[in-house]
Amino acid sequence: MKILVLNAGSSSQKSCLYDITGDQLPAYPPHPLWEATIDWTVATDYGVMKVKANGIKQETNLSSDAKEEAISKLLQTLVSGDTQVLESLSEINAVGHRVVHGGTEYSEATRITPEVQATITQLIPLAPSHNPANLQGIEAVERVLPDVPQVAVFDTAFHSQMPPEAAVYPIPYEWFEQGVRRYGFHGTSHRYCALRTAELMEKPLESLKMITCHLGNGCSLAAVKDGISVNTTMGFTPLEGLMMGTRSGSIDPAIIFYLMRDRGFDVNSIDRMLNKESGFKGVSGLSADLRTILHAMNEKNERATLAFDLYIHRLRSAIGQMLASLGGLDVLVFTAGVGENSVDVRHRACEGFEFLGLTLDVEKNMNSPMDTDITTPDSAVRVYVIHTEEDWAIARQTWQCLR
After folding, report:
1. Which residue positions hold the site described Transition state stabilizer (predicted)?
2. Residue 217 belongs to domain spanning
């Protein structure tokens, strides 16, 4: 079964094509036949599409004015040029999509129908940076491959067993009954990284108290106990929790009242500011990209330094919050673009927890670790860097759903 995966984030598009043969899933993630990414954070007026297949890597700039056409251009690289791996797009047997918000309706991978699409659309106000991008991918595939089954893998699913004290907001209870609750996101990544870490430690996941840190342009933590997510930092929407690339994370809600009452903001301008103009971008005034922030820090840019220090302060505080939900900690996991690649973020975050007996091995941390423990042998808490295989997790759940 050839399964195409479309994994749309708030500022990126990751895609893979897997070929799963036989009646059993492979024990380890297979190498995809084709991989592609689109990154819209590198510049204000264009994005960069990178495609890898047949041992060849290609890079193309895409105009920011033509984002809706980007997925179609991406799919064409499957059947043309040096990256061609299919004679026709009709060879694709199924398409799996990461969908950020599934509300209370969906807690597992689900075949996409008009009703499912309608629900994803209705939930756009709860995930304004993501669900529209997820829908664009679904609609793009419908136009090109109208008869191919598509499956939605929901980011909210892994957190669906959070206990009430973690899921309910302290507002009038009738709002919880109407769906205003904490959902959590990045669940596909958190679930994969938790399982992979337990595998590497050669211990049952159910025996571990674990905090998984998904740190990319969007960021969230999950407290995993008894094999399930018992708490997480994102909530009703992906805006809650940590400071992110362009998102503020949690703030005093009265700031919104002040800006609307005294500063002339309306709902749309507040939404845009908190989701698109805050976080690293808002504090530094430079960029949502941590690489740009670190470069500016080296040039003694004070606002870049403030942005990084604020990010670390909030990350440590949130790790402490997850720690309290677990009542102890066996392993801390870093994943996603920042978590996997930033030596500085891992080092600074772990410094705050040396009182737990956590001792980072500086050399291991520096040496581009992947699926590796980066602590010293005597560390009381293990720290793993895990390469998140969200795409393979989506393909696997798509295969299972359709089987």
Report:
1. 186, 247
2. 202-385
User: Is 260 part of any domain?
Assistant: yes
Best CA proximity match to 343, nearest among 304, 309, 374: 374
- Considering the domain architecture, whether residues 137 and 215 belong to the same structural domain is answered as no
Q: Does residue 174 sit within a domain?
A: no
In whole angstroms, what is the distance from residue 36 CA to residue 73 CA?
11
Residue 319 tokens read as 């790790």
Residue 146 sits in the same domain as residue 287 = no
Report the binding-site residues for Mg(2+): 7, 390
Q: Last residue of some domain: 122, 138, 154?
A: 154
Binding-site members for substrate are: 98
Do the Cβ atoms of 395 and 5 come closer than 8 Å?
yes
User: 155 an active-site residue?
Assistant: yes
State the number of CA atoms in the 13 A half-sphere of 276 facing the CB. 11
Name the residue type at position 294.
Answer: L
Instruction: Give the residue numbers of the binding site.
Output: 7, 14, 98, 214-218, 289-291, 337-341, 390
Q: What is the pLDDT along the chain (403 residues), one digit of tens a residue?
A: 999 999 886 677 889 999 999 888 887 889 999 999 998 877 778 889 999 999 999 999 888 777 767 888 889 999 999 999 999 999 999 999 999 888 877 878 999 999 999 999 998 888 787 888 889 889 989 988 999 999 999 988 899 999 999 999 999 999 999 889 999 989 999 999 999 999 999 999 999 999 999 999 999 999 999 999 999 999 998 899 999 999 999 999 999 999 999 999 999 999 999 999 999 999 999 999 999 999 999 999 999 999 999 999 999 999 999 999 999 999 999 999 999 999 999 999 999 999 999 999 999 999 989 999 999 999 999 999 999 988 999 999 999 999 8
Asked if 332 and 211 touch (Cβ cutoff 8 Å), the reply is yes
Domains identified in the chain, total number: 2
Please give the order of strands across the beta sheet that includes 94-99.
56-63, 46-53, 34-39, 12-19, 2-8, 94-99, 150-154, 110-111
**Helix H or strand E encompassing 366:** helix 362-366
